[in-house]
Amino acid sequence: MQLHEFQHALGARPMHYYAEIGSTNDTSLAWLRDNAAHGSIVIADYQTRGRGRLGRSWHAPPGTALMFSIILRPSHLYLARVNMIAALSVEMALNDVGAAQTTLKWPNDVLLNGRKVCGILSEGAWDGSQFLGVALGIGINVSVDFGDTPMASSAISVSEVTSDVDRVLLLTRVLHHLDTWMAQIATDTPRTTWRARLSTIGQAVRIALPQETISGIAEDVDEHGALLIRRADGTLGRAFAGDIAGLSMES
Ligand code: BTN
User: Fold this and answer.
1) 217 and 98, same structural domain?
2) CB-ligand 1 contact for 107 (6 Å cutoff)
3) Nearest to residue 31, comparing CAs of 17, 23, 41, 45?
4) Does residue 240 share a domain with residue 185?
5) pLDDT by residue (tens digit) across 51-92?
6) For the residues 173-190, what does the mean pLDDT come to?
7) Candidates 67, 83, 144, 174: which one to mutate for ligand 1, based on the most atoms within 8 Å of Cβ?
8) Within this chain, do residues 211 and 162 fall inside the same structural domain, yes or no?
9) What is the Cα–Cα distance from 230 to 216, expressed in whole angstroms?
10) CA–CA dist 5, 90 (Å, integer)
């Protein structure tokens, strides 16, 4: 099934499909401000200005990735859990389509065979102090050919482990799991489940923050999704996803 046929698969969910767009996050943020309903989605076959975390760009050739943004309107109290349930939903959807060797890497990468298969960029929208909602952007490498590029050692496509991945099926599985997790967003279950899946926990890490670099063993995540790192001197450091300039594994 081609992506433009996904409307049929999604039923009544409000959606916009673009063969080419700047960024699905930008378009969904504008739609969010224009009263889009919770659950509305923007999907694109190709992005000319795809954005990643920390101001990075995110690019995939036409037709090779599943790229979409979903508009969610949770309470602002549960904002941190949106990234957690997004990663969990993508991981479960990948498992559904036969890509089984998945783990999660803090803060919100989904890994397949230890390499990054999906990036997540959630952006909140506010009207002054009033929280409007979140544009949750998800990009999954379905059949991107990383070839001999430097990315080949750290990135992977689903097609490398399972052939004939149907992007519409993958999308419907992600949305199914997102709906299920959203129903639990007021509980601590998203965090405890996410924490249990994080390969980062227990690893020696070095995290570059604007003011300092924290080295130690990643010990836990708190309710805000921050990573807690036990330094060699026994003190606990805390890193927020939005602050990190770099995270490297030392083991
Ligand atoms: C990252 O790993 O840095 C996050 C990458 C997020 C990419 C997705 S693709 C769909 C959505 N639209 C964007 O511009 N970015 C996200």
Assistant:
1) no
2) no
3) 41
4) no
5) 998 889 999 999 999 999 999 999 999 999 999 999 999 999
6) 97
7) 67
8) no
9) 5
10) 21
Q: Please, which residues bridge with residue 41 across strands?
A: 15, 70
Q: How many Å apart are CA 217 and CA 155, to the nearest integer?
A: 24
What pLDDT score was predicted for residue 89?
98
Q: Ligand 1: distance of its center to the CA of 130 in Å?
A: 25
Residues 73, 133, single domain; the answer is yes
My answer on whether 51 and 147 are in the same domain is yes
Instruction: Identify whether the C-beta of residue 42 lies closer than 8 Å to the C-beta of residue 31.
Output: yes
Nearest to 212 by CA among 186, 184, 240: 240
Q: Under a CB-based contact definition with an 8 Å cutoff, are residues 108 and 90 in contact? A: no
Q: What are phi and psi of 32, to 5 degrees?
A: -60, -45
The residue from 164, 181, 197 where one domain ends is 197
Q: Does 188 lie in the same domain as 209?
A: no
Quote the CA–CA distance of 31 and 81 in Å, as a whole number: 22
CA dihedral 25, 90, 169, 145 (to 10 degrees): 80
- C-beta 119 within 6 A of ligand 1: yes
Pocket of ligand 1 contains residue 122 by CB under 6 Å: no
Helix 79-96 with 189-197: angle, nearest 10 deg: 50
The range of the structural domain enclosing residue 64 comes to: 3-197
- Condensed to tens digits (0 to 9), the pLDDT of residues 123-162 reads 999 999 999 999 999 999 999 999 988 888 999 999 999 9
Q: In the predicted model, is pLDDT for residue 246 greater than 80? A: no
Q: What proportion of the chain, given as a percentage, has pLDDT over 90?
A: 81
d(CA 194, CA 212): 27
Looking at the structure, tell me whether residues 219 and 153 fall in a common domain: no
Domains of the chain: total: 2
